[in-house]
Protein backbone atom coordinates (compact mmCIF):
# COMPACT_ATOMS: atom_id res chain seq x y z
CA UNK A 1 0.00 0.00 0.00
CA UNK A 2 1.36 3.39 -1.02
CA UNK A 3 1.36 5.82 1.89
CA UNK A 4 2.99 8.89 0.34
CA UNK A 5 1.33 12.28 0.12
CA UNK A 6 -0.75 12.69 -3.05
CA UNK A 7 -2.48 16.03 -3.46
CA UNK A 8 -6.00 15.48 -4.77
CA UNK A 9 -8.63 18.23 -4.51
CA UNK A 10 -11.50 16.04 -5.69
CA UNK A 11 -12.68 15.26 -2.09
CA UNK A 12 -13.66 18.94 -1.77
CA UNK A 13 -16.22 18.30 -4.51
CA UNK A 14 -17.70 15.48 -2.48
CA UNK A 15 -19.86 15.93 0.65
CA UNK A 16 -17.30 14.38 3.01
CA UNK A 17 -14.65 16.96 2.07
CA UNK A 18 -16.87 19.97 1.47
CA UNK A 19 -18.74 19.61 4.75
CA UNK A 20 -15.42 19.24 6.59
CA UNK A 21 -14.37 22.60 5.13
CA UNK A 22 -17.66 24.10 6.36
CA UNK A 23 -16.98 22.65 9.83
CA UNK A 24 -13.58 24.32 9.85
CA UNK A 25 -15.11 27.71 9.02
CA UNK A 26 -18.05 27.50 11.43
CA UNK A 27 -15.71 26.53 14.27
CA UNK A 28 -13.71 29.71 13.66
CA UNK A 29 -16.84 31.86 13.83
CA UNK A 30 -18.08 30.08 16.97
CA UNK A 31 -15.03 30.49 19.19
CA UNK A 32 -13.89 33.74 17.55
CA UNK A 33 -17.15 35.54 18.28
CA UNK A 34 -16.96 34.45 21.92
CA UNK A 35 -13.33 34.84 22.96
CA UNK A 36 -12.86 38.18 21.19
CA UNK A 37 -15.54 39.98 23.19
CA UNK A 38 -15.07 42.94 25.52
CA UNK A 39 -17.81 45.35 26.51
CA UNK A 40 -18.86 48.19 28.78
CA UNK A 41 -22.14 49.07 30.45
CA UNK A 42 -22.75 52.59 31.67
CA UNK A 43 -24.66 52.91 34.96
CA UNK A 44 -26.38 56.16 35.85
CA UNK A 45 -27.03 56.82 39.53
CA UNK A 46 -29.72 59.36 40.43
CA UNK A 47 -29.06 60.66 43.94
CA UNK A 48 -31.70 61.84 46.34
CA UNK A 49 -30.52 65.47 46.09
CA UNK A 50 -31.03 65.47 42.29
CA UNK A 51 -27.36 65.02 41.36
CA UNK A 52 -26.17 62.27 38.99
CA UNK A 53 -23.23 59.89 39.16
CA UNK A 54 -21.91 57.60 36.43
CA UNK A 55 -20.13 54.26 36.67
CA UNK A 56 -18.60 52.12 33.94
CA UNK A 57 -18.90 48.34 34.18
CA UNK A 58 -16.26 46.83 31.90
CA UNK A 59 -15.97 43.08 31.34
CA UNK A 60 -14.66 40.62 28.77
CA UNK A 61 -14.02 36.97 28.00
CA UNK A 62 -13.91 34.63 29.91
CA UNK A 63 -16.64 36.48 31.86
CA UNK A 64 -15.33 35.88 35.35
CA UNK A 65 -17.34 38.92 36.43
CA UNK A 66 -16.24 38.81 40.05
CA UNK A 67 -12.81 39.97 38.90
CA UNK A 68 -14.15 43.14 37.25
CA UNK A 69 -14.74 46.13 39.57
CA UNK A 70 -17.77 48.38 39.48
CA UNK A 71 -16.02 50.65 41.98
CA UNK A 72 -12.27 50.26 41.83
CA UNK A 73 -11.46 51.87 45.18
CA UNK A 74 -13.15 53.45 48.18
CA UNK A 75 -14.94 56.59 47.07
CA UNK A 76 -17.94 58.80 47.78
CA UNK A 77 -21.12 58.60 45.73
CA UNK A 78 -24.29 60.52 46.49
CA UNK A 79 -22.63 61.79 49.68
CA UNK A 80 -22.14 58.24 50.89
CA UNK A 81 -18.92 56.31 51.38
CA UNK A 82 -18.73 53.32 49.04
CA UNK A 83 -16.14 50.56 49.28
CA UNK A 84 -14.54 48.65 46.43
CA UNK A 85 -17.26 46.60 44.74
CA UNK A 86 -16.98 43.95 42.05
CA UNK A 87 -19.65 42.57 39.78
CA UNK A 88 -21.24 39.26 40.68
CA UNK A 89 -21.29 36.12 38.57
CA UNK A 90 -18.92 33.71 36.87
CA UNK A 91 -19.60 32.21 33.44
CA UNK A 92 -15.96 31.37 32.75
CA UNK A 93 -16.41 27.59 32.85
CA UNK A 94 -19.11 27.51 30.18
CA UNK A 95 -17.39 30.12 28.01
CA UNK A 96 -14.00 28.38 28.16
CA UNK A 97 -15.61 24.99 27.53
CA UNK A 98 -17.34 26.40 24.44
CA UNK A 99 -14.17 28.01 23.12
CA UNK A 100 -12.14 24.88 23.89
CA UNK A 101 -14.51 22.67 21.89
CA UNK A 102 -14.38 25.17 19.03
CA UNK A 103 -10.58 25.19 18.94
CA UNK A 104 -10.39 21.38 19.08
CA UNK A 105 -12.87 21.10 16.20
CA UNK A 106 -10.94 23.71 14.23
CA UNK A 107 -7.71 21.74 14.62
CA UNK A 108 -9.34 18.38 13.92
CA UNK A 109 -11.04 19.71 10.78
CA UNK A 110 -7.69 20.96 9.50
CA UNK A 111 -6.06 17.59 10.16
CA UNK A 112 -8.96 15.74 8.52
CA UNK A 113 -8.79 17.98 5.45
CA UNK A 114 -5.08 17.24 5.17
CA UNK A 115 -5.85 13.51 5.22
CA UNK A 116 -8.68 13.86 2.71
CA UNK A 117 -6.64 15.93 0.26
CA UNK A 118 -3.32 14.14 0.57
CA UNK A 119 -3.89 10.67 1.99
CA UNK A 120 -7.37 9.66 0.80
CA UNK A 121 -5.89 6.53 -0.81
CA UNK A 122 -4.64 5.45 2.62
CA UNK A 123 -7.86 6.54 4.34
CA UNK A 124 -10.06 4.39 2.09
CA UNK A 125 -7.75 1.38 2.07
CA UNK A 126 -7.83 1.02 5.86
CA UNK A 127 -10.61 0.22 8.30
CA UNK A 128 -9.12 2.29 11.11
CA UNK A 129 -9.26 5.70 9.39
CA UNK A 130 -13.00 5.85 8.55
CA UNK A 131 -14.06 4.26 11.85
CA UNK A 132 -11.87 6.62 13.88
CA UNK A 133 -13.24 9.57 11.88
CA UNK A 134 -16.83 8.47 12.47
CA UNK A 135 -16.36 7.94 16.23
CA UNK A 136 -14.72 11.37 16.63
CA UNK A 137 -17.49 12.98 14.56
CA UNK A 138 -20.19 11.41 16.74
CA UNK A 139 -18.43 12.57 19.92
CA UNK A 140 -18.07 16.10 18.54
CA UNK A 141 -21.81 16.29 17.79
CA UNK A 142 -22.50 15.56 21.47
CA UNK A 143 -19.84 18.03 22.63
CA UNK A 144 -21.32 20.83 20.50
CA UNK A 145 -24.76 20.16 21.96
CA UNK A 146 -23.47 20.24 25.54
CA UNK A 147 -21.13 23.22 25.22
CA UNK A 148 -23.60 25.32 23.20
CA UNK A 149 -26.34 24.71 25.75
CA UNK A 150 -23.97 25.50 28.62
CA UNK A 151 -22.72 28.67 26.95
CA UNK A 152 -26.27 29.80 26.10
CA UNK A 153 -27.11 29.55 29.81
CA UNK A 154 -23.81 31.22 30.75
CA UNK A 155 -24.50 34.09 28.37
CA UNK A 156 -27.94 34.58 29.89
CA UNK A 157 -26.28 34.77 33.31
CA UNK A 158 -23.88 37.44 32.02
CA UNK A 159 -26.79 39.47 30.67
CA UNK A 160 -28.69 39.15 33.95
CA UNK A 161 -25.65 40.16 36.04
CA UNK A 162 -24.98 43.26 33.95
CA UNK A 163 -28.51 44.60 33.51
CA UNK A 164 -30.18 47.15 35.77
CA UNK A 165 -31.55 44.59 38.21
CA UNK A 166 -28.24 42.75 38.49
CA UNK A 167 -26.20 45.92 39.03
CA UNK A 168 -28.70 47.28 41.53
CA UNK A 169 -28.50 44.05 43.50
CA UNK A 170 -24.70 44.23 43.53
CA UNK A 171 -24.25 47.85 44.61
CA UNK A 172 -25.31 48.43 48.21
CA UNK A 173 -25.67 52.11 47.34
CA UNK A 174 -28.51 51.33 44.93
CA UNK A 175 -30.57 49.71 47.66
CA UNK A 176 -31.23 53.07 49.31
CA UNK A 177 -34.80 54.34 49.16
CA UNK A 178 -33.86 57.70 47.62
CA UNK A 179 -31.24 56.48 45.15
CA UNK A 180 -32.01 55.03 41.73
CA UNK A 181 -29.53 53.06 39.63
CA UNK A 182 -30.11 52.27 35.97
CA UNK A 183 -27.98 50.87 33.15
CA UNK A 184 -28.35 53.48 30.42
CA UNK A 185 -25.87 52.04 27.91
CA UNK A 186 -25.45 48.33 27.26
CA UNK A 187 -22.50 46.57 25.67
CA UNK A 188 -23.27 45.22 22.22
CA UNK A 189 -23.60 41.46 22.72
CA UNK A 190 -24.44 40.68 19.11
CA UNK A 191 -21.24 38.69 18.60
CA UNK A 192 -21.97 36.61 21.71
CA UNK A 193 -25.46 35.81 20.44
CA UNK A 194 -23.93 34.87 17.09
CA UNK A 195 -21.47 32.55 18.84
CA UNK A 196 -24.37 30.61 20.39
CA UNK A 197 -26.06 30.33 16.98
CA UNK A 198 -22.85 29.05 15.43
CA UNK A 199 -22.48 26.57 18.28
CA UNK A 200 -25.78 24.90 17.44
CA UNK A 201 -25.05 25.26 13.73
CA UNK A 202 -21.81 23.35 14.28
CA UNK A 203 -23.75 20.59 15.99
CA UNK A 204 -26.06 20.26 12.97
CA UNK A 205 -23.22 20.36 10.44
CA UNK A 206 -21.23 17.69 12.28
CA UNK A 207 -24.35 15.53 12.63
CA UNK A 208 -24.98 15.91 8.90
CA UNK A 209 -21.38 14.98 8.14
CA UNK A 210 -21.57 11.89 10.35
CA UNK A 211 -23.64 10.14 7.68
CA UNK A 212 -21.06 10.69 4.95
CA UNK A 213 -18.25 9.56 7.24
CA UNK A 214 -20.29 6.50 8.22
CA UNK A 215 -20.64 5.56 4.54
CA UNK A 216 -16.85 5.21 4.36
CA UNK A 217 -16.75 2.65 7.18
CA UNK A 218 -16.92 -1.13 6.79
CA UNK A 219 -20.12 -1.09 8.87
CA UNK A 220 -21.96 0.58 6.00
CA UNK A 221 -20.39 -1.61 3.31
CA UNK A 222 -21.39 -4.75 5.21
CA UNK A 223 -24.92 -3.51 5.71
CA UNK A 224 -25.30 -2.42 2.10
CA UNK A 225 -23.12 -4.73 -0.03
CA UNK A 226 -22.61 -3.79 -3.65
CA UNK A 227 -25.26 -5.37 -5.90
CA UNK A 228 -24.56 -6.75 -9.39
CA UNK A 229 -25.51 -4.49 -12.26
CA UNK A 230 -28.90 -4.89 -14.00
CA UNK A 231 -27.35 -6.52 -17.06
CA UNK A 232 -25.38 -9.03 -15.08
CA UNK A 233 -26.64 -12.46 -14.09
CA UNK A 234 -25.04 -15.01 -11.88
CA UNK A 235 -23.73 -17.96 -13.82
CA UNK A 236 -24.77 -21.20 -12.14
CA UNK A 237 -21.93 -23.34 -10.99
CA UNK A 238 -21.34 -26.41 -13.15
CA UNK A 239 -22.73 -29.65 -11.80
Topology:
Blueprint: H1 15-35, E1 38-46, E2 52-60, E3 69-71, E4 75-77, E5 80-82, E6 85-86, H2 92-118, H3 120-125, H4 128-161, H5 164-170, E7 180-185, H6 190-214, H7 218-223
Antiparallel strand pairs: 1-2, 1-7, 3-6, 4-5
Helix pairs in contact: 1-2, 1-6, 2-4, 4-6
3D architecture notes:
- The protein starts with 14 loop residues before the first helix and ends in a 16-residue tail after the last helix.
- Helix content is 53%, strand content 15%.
- A 3-stranded antiparallel beta sheet has the order 2-1-7, with helices on one face. It has a two-stranded antiparallel ribbon with strand order 3-6.
- Helix 1 runs antiparallel to helix 6, helix 2 packs antiparallel against helix 4 and helix 4 runs antiparallel to helix 6.
- The chain has 7 helices and 7 strands; from the N terminus they run H-E-E-E-E-E-E-H-H-H-H-E-H-H.
- The chain has 239 residues and is of the alpha+beta class.
- The C terminus is likely disordered.
Amino acid sequence: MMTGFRLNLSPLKEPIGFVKLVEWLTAIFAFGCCCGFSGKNVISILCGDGSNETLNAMYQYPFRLSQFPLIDKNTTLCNQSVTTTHMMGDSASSAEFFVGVGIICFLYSMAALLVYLGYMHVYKDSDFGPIFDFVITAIVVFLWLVCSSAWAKGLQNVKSATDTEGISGTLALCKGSNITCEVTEFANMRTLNISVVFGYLNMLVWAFNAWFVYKETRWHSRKFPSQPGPGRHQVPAPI
